[in-house]
Specification:
Blueprint: H1 3-11, H2 27-33, H3 38-43, H4 45-59, E1 63-65, H5 74-80, E2 82-86, E3 89-93, E4 99-103, E5 106-111, H6 141-153, E6 156-162, H7 164-172, H8 174-183, H9 185-209, E7 213-217, H10 228-234, H11 236-249, E8 255-259, H12 267-272, E9 277-280, H13 291-298, E10 303-306, H14 310-314, H15 319-333, E11 339-340, H16 353-356, H17 359-366
Parallel strand pairs: 1-6, 6-7, 7-8, 8-9, 9-10, 10-11
Antiparallel strand pairs: 2-3, 3-4, 4-5
Helix pairs in contact: 4-6, 7-8, 7-9, 8-9, 9-11, 15-17
């Protein structure tokens, strides 16, 4: 069975040969383990592609998530960047004036002349004037490389869009967005409705290139930031519209939502948005979702991806402790299909590759269908 087949059987609630394995890797993890210089990985589409492919092959994951994109003119920016040596590493000055520094293998933005110093106030904005990007056809350089490699090596390629709610938080700044929902909810709703068009456009561009699954990144929609009442009002209707448009455009594309932190009180509401699956399901203490509970409540409607604690478990794991942890997780999640073994959120940069390399053998040992509990 191919990697691609294994992922898609699980997402359609059928039983593949074993539970698929696919963690979202942080940029920091790939910078350390991807075999590329951090600056190259961030600004060179071919370098980024090599890092994605190397880490996937090293870990034998069944898919990759493209959570970055590259404009087709990326090469101009990359080649025109000025490089300076500093006592701490290299400094890169981009044509737009931004300055990045490579500090011990981690790339940090240290100067951005284009960044607004003050948060935008909701009173200063008219919804119809909020700028939208509706053409992403020129931002698919990495996606084209990844889809071609996915076809060669038969793995799943997941695209990513950000939710309308995430767009609102970026537009206003997180603090202002929280206040605006209280003081001017109707204007927030009007802005969210506009962002649906932008989300759809970005999804279509990735689907047209050939990604086979779509993730909606909605990190701020958990209980850590907004109440259940606000989730119903400012998240569900607009994510439902985005999901409906993606399904109408490409019915074969599964769509799942990635929300960080505390979502135990809103699993059913997430399902009501029409998605096919949920990612993260942060366990305590990072969140409040237990895999067994999520499986019982929404597992018949949604495929579930995640629940492994990347911070408190994977960073500290030994082969013995990881085996016990994964065995129990598979027992809770795999029955009847619909589960993908994954870290809850991104794999922390300093998780040891030798620990992650154990996940597929453990899925082979404890996650083969027809032998649960062995």
């Amino acid at each position: 069975m191919t990697h691609y087949e294994r992922i898609h059987l699980a997402m359609s609630h059928r039983e593949p040969d074993r539970v698929p394995v696919m963690c979202q890797l942080s940029q920091g993890y790939m910078a350390i383990n991807g075999g590329e210089k951090p600056f190259d990985m961030y600004f060179n589409a071919e370098s980024a592609a090599r890092a994605f492919f190397k880490t996937r092959r090293d870990l034998d994951f069944d898919g990759i998530l493209l959570n970055v994109c590259f404009e087709d003119d990326w090469r101009d920016t990359y080649e025109q960047a000025k490089v300076e040596n500093t006592p701490d590493g290299e400094r890169y000055i981009l044509p737009n004036g931004q300055v990045y520094e490579d500090r011990n293998g981690q790339l940090t933005l240290t100067h951005d002349p284009n960044k607004e110093k003050n948060l935008v106030d909701i009173e200063e904005i008219e919804p119809e004037e909020v700028p939208l990007r509706l053409d992403y056809s020129g931002a698919m350089a990495l996606h084209r490389l990844a889809v071609a490699e996915g076809k060669r090596e038969h793995f799943s390629v997941h695209g990513e869009i950000v939710s309308p709610f995430d767009c609102l938080c970026v537009l206003l700044g997180l603090e202002n967005a929280m206040m605006a929902m209280i003081t001017d909810g109707e204007k927030c709703e009007a802005i969210l409705a506009r962002y649906v068009d932008q989300c759809e456009a970005f999804a279509r561009a990735q689907i047209d290139v050939g990604v086979d699954t779509m993730k909606i990144s909605s990190p701020f929609a958990g209980g850590s930031f907004i109440s259940l009442e606000f989730y119903k009002r400012f998240v569900v209707p607009f994510e439902r519209e985005v999901v409906g448009r993606i399904h109408a455009y490409a019915p074969q594309i599964p769509v799942y939502t990635h929300t960080c932190g505390f979502i135990g009180d809103r699993l059913e509401l997430m399902a009501a948005s029409g998605i096919d699956g949920i990612e993260c399901m942060d366990p305590p203490p990072l969140g409040n979702t237990e895999l067994k509970d999520a499986k019982a409540r929404v597992g018949k409607k949604l495929f579930l991806k995640g629940n492994m604690d990347s911070v408190n478990v994977l960073l500290q794991a030994t082969p013995e402790s990881l085996e016990e942890y994964v065995r129990d997780m598979l027992k809770d999640g795999m029955a009847g299909g619909g589960y993908i073994l994954s870290s809850a959120c991104s794999v922390a940069p300093n998780v040891k590759p030798e620990i992650l390399k154990l996940l597929v053998p453990l899925a082979e040992k404890y996650g083969r269908y027809g032998q649960e509990g062995e």
